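User: Here's a structure from my thesis project, written as structure tokens. My advisor, Dr. K., wants to see whether a designed sequence matches the one we expressed. Can you design one independently, without my sequence as a hint?
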């Protein structure tokens, strides 16, 4: 599933294609949404905003298209009405005179008026968005120690969008590794130093991933590994997807675990209990 940085990158691309321009056509795959096609056609798109793992396409008439890519959804930007050859199902198309923004394979799509955004089941429960520059490390640290979160296991807490918006499976492993915190712990079990490290890593790695299109490894190390001929897959992460290979920090073999059906990677030496 795309995480916050990937959705923000997609929002940037879609915004560059359709924001500030009136639509020439809007089409939905779902019958329940087709009534909104004439309401949104000929109206200027004012903004395209990422909200954690969701996206809002905002219109000048006070309507918004909410979309969540879920596991398989993908946005493509093409020249106007230029559809790619694909077996994916087109769920939403937003066209203007020059470009088309096409959402494939996603099924979580809704049309909301401005006044309905705060009561939407997903949007209303989002925690602080780590890509929001106004969100500080101190605020994130306070989330870890809040009563509603401090007794929960970090492996589930870091995937909860009501805790922090934008984190997902690869960022979970990377945050725990950079903070040197064992996956089995709860915030309650962590020292003040560990809480600070978790907050710092959550903010820094999410923003670095957005700025670098997915790299959470040390940037100098990633550049060195790239120069040595290693692939993006190999130099992208500290531990995620690197089971059976040596930790870049200490050389211990990285371990893969599966918790709640989701993959988790960690170094048993750097993240000792």
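Assistant: Designed independently from the structure alone:
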């Amino acid at each position: 599933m795309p995480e916050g940085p990937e959705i923000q990158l997609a929002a940037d691309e879609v915004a560059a294609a359709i924001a500030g321009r009136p639509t020439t056509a809007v089409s939905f795959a779902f019958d329940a949404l087709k009534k909104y096609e004439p309401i949104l056609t000929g109206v200027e798109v004012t903004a395209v905003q990422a909200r954690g793992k969701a996206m809002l396409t905002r219109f000048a008439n006070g309507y918004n298209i909410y979309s969540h890519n879920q596991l398989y959804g993908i946005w493509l930007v093409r020249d106007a009405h230029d559809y790619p050859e694909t077996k994916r199902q087109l769920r939403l198309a937003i066209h203007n005179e020059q470009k088309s923004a096409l959402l494939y394979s996603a099924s979580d799509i809704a049309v909301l008026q401005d006044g309905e955004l705060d009561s939407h089941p997903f949007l209303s429960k989002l925690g602080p968005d780590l890509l929001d520059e106004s969100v500080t490390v101190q605020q994130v640290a306070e989330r870890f120690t809040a009563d509603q979160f401090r007794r929960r296991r970090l492996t589930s807490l870091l995937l909860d969008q009501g805790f922090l918006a934008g984190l997902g499976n690869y960022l979970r492993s990377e945050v725990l590794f950079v903070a040197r915190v064992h996956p089995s712990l709860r915030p309650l079990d962590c020292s003040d130093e560990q809480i600070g490290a978790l907050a710092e890593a959550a903010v820094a790695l999410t923003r670095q991933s957005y700025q670098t299109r997915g790299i959470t490894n040390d940037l100098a190390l990633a550049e060195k590994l790239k120069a040595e001929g290693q692939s993006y897959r190999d130099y992208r992460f500290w531990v995620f997807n690197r089971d059976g290979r040596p930790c870049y920090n200490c050389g211990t073999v990285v371990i893969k675990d599966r918790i709640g059906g989701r993959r988790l990677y960690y170094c048993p030496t750097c993240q000792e209990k």
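When you compare it with your expressed construct, this may help: The radius of gyration is 20 Å.
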